[in-house]
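Quick start: load a record and inspect it. Here is Membrane protein involved in the export of O-antigen and teichoic acid:
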Amino acid sequence: MIRRLLSLVPPGTIAIGAGLGLLGLASYVHLAVAGHNLTEADYSSLSVLWSIVFTLGIGVFMPVEQEVARIVAARRTQGLPPGPVLARGAALAAAVLAVMVVLILAARGVLTDRLFAGDSAMVTVLIGSLAALAVAHTTRGVLSGLQLFPWYGTQLGVDGGLRIGLVALLGLAGVTSPVWYGAVLVAAPLIGVAVTLPPVLRAAGQGGVPVAWRVLLRGLGLLTVSSLLSQVVVNIGVINVRVLAPSDVATAGALLSALVLVRIPLFVFASLQASLLPGLATAASTGDLATFRGLLRRTLGVVTALGLVGALGAVLLGPWLVRTLFDAPDVLGHGDFAVLGAATLAYLWAMVLGQTLLALDRHRAQAVAWIAGVVVLAAVTLVPLPVDLRVELAYATGSLVTAAVMAALLRGATGAVSAPAPARHAVAVGPSGGNR
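Running the structure step on this input writes:
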């Protein structure tokens, strides 16, 4: 029975899901240990660091991973070596990282004073964390494109396992500096890359004719816009609390703890995502409208169930869990968790519909929807309400508007499924979305 169930899932789902599961657990352990050892002000600084790292890191470098994986996979079917793709991907990631570092250094004083309570070392940790994610996502693109899913899952698992081990050591040693808890976000991904480096080095050694830049950059711009804005929607609330109410250090830390809890369904969806997009893309390219719609309906049903169960659990247990697990201040109630749970459900819908638009080669439509969501999020954030309520409502309305716009755009796009056509953008296999 188990063997039959395993045969139903695409290759790599189990390996990637296991790695993601450990990485997700690491997020809870990381923040829980930090919450019990740091002051409210220091935990607030760590929360802001966490939100910036995963907004920019996943938002910018995940598209690089996906494009590298897409091109490597396409070349693999033609018997072409992956080395030139890795070289271009690494150069692109390095260039993007360099621009980000220059901008961060230029704003170092403002970031130190406004976001990190005068601790300039946190800015250094921010740069190191972004560099670690740049290296990790680039190498994962190669592993994914070559269908080396056990290696891919191993990198995720090593990253997660080390986070758990390192923060446990910090907790046992009684470390009370947010810098060290932030430094774990630098060390763990880099060691994960080092452990899974052998197949990447073999790929790098398989050289050939350089890949044209236009092949890598063709869909990257719109994909990056969508990826970055999706991370803004899900992560910006913590940063906004710190910007709008600098003295309210309790709310920023409590909000991050609450968000980590209510977004548990996103980790589950991430393991499904690796199989969703190829399935939709295959049905679209062959003109199989019935399969396309059936897969979309089933996926929406699954994520809706996940979202409702997660929201119900968060509403009932959320206030107690954030106090018990993360030692968070008692500033969020059941109503706050209801709004955050509804927001996460809407965000799940947006993720599924966004993947559907990508399967139809509608990169621009997906980007337009995320832009609309972020505009609404910004508008709601400026409404004169209590800070915690407005950032929660901003997350909810931004996600809901994004999903609604995608649904509207998708109605006009599904006609493309009726006419078989080769997919110009074969889809990558990496999981994305959510906080880590």
